[in-house]
Write a structure and sequence with these properties.
Layout lengths: L7 E4 L2 E11 L2 E6 L3 E6 L14 E5 L2 E8 L5 E2 L8 E7 L2 E7 L1 E14 L11 E9 L4 E7 L1 H12 L5
Parallel strand pairs: 6-9
Antiparallel strand pairs: 1-2, 2-3, 2-10, 4-8, 5-6, 6-7, 8-9, 10-11, 11-12
């Protein structure tokens, strides 16, 4: 079983991981909570500081963070659909970036097993970092698609040639 560096806690004898479920155009992707810096309502976005490749920006601490909008198929959108209500701020190293999603929800899963994505879904073609099997605390085994801040940043670097804050 592959390891995942997310917050683990004991609950009723089962080991579980806190993961954020992120919805894009009705498709659910997952992001470990440790990769989430913060999230904001899209009403806090600023259009005046966008860099031409981003759809907006937001101030987080001392940084102006570029915000990107991806479709469920990871195509870069140049305008914000009405369904996008949440801005997720993530980062890797000292670089910060944001992306818009329809909804975000904190979930706890138990018995997570990560598998690398197939070569055809590599970081250059997709921000997916891994596929995983999980058992929801209340149900059966499901397949999830994991995003990580490093794979998202690599995907954006390769696709957009942008400089994150």
């Amino acid at each position: 079983m592959s390891a995942i560096s997310v917050a683990h806690h004991k609950k009723e004898g089962a080991q579980s991981a806190t993961i954020m479920a992120i919805e894009l155009d009705g498709e659910i992707y997952y992001l470990p909570q440790v990769d989430l810096i913060t999230f904001e309502n899209t009403q806090h976005l600023q259009e005046s500081n966008k860099d031409g490749r981003s759809v907006a920006s937001i101030k987080v601490g001392d940084h102006i963070v570029p915000i990107y909008c991806l479709s469920k198929d990871f195509e870069l959108l140049n305008q914000i659909p009405d369904e996008r209500k949440v801005c997720v701020i993530s980062g890797y190293g000292d670089r910060r970036f944001g992306f818009l999603c329809d909804k975000i929800q904190k979930l706890s899963y138990s018995k997570i097993k990560l598998e690398p994505v197939p070569a055809c879904m590599s970081a250059q073609n997709s921000p997916l970092s891994s596929l995983f099997l999980y058992r929801m605390e209340s149900g059966g085994i499901e397949l999830g698609m994991m995003l990580r801040s490093q794979s998202l940043l690599s995907f954006l670097d390769n696709s957009l040639k942008f400089d994150a804050a």
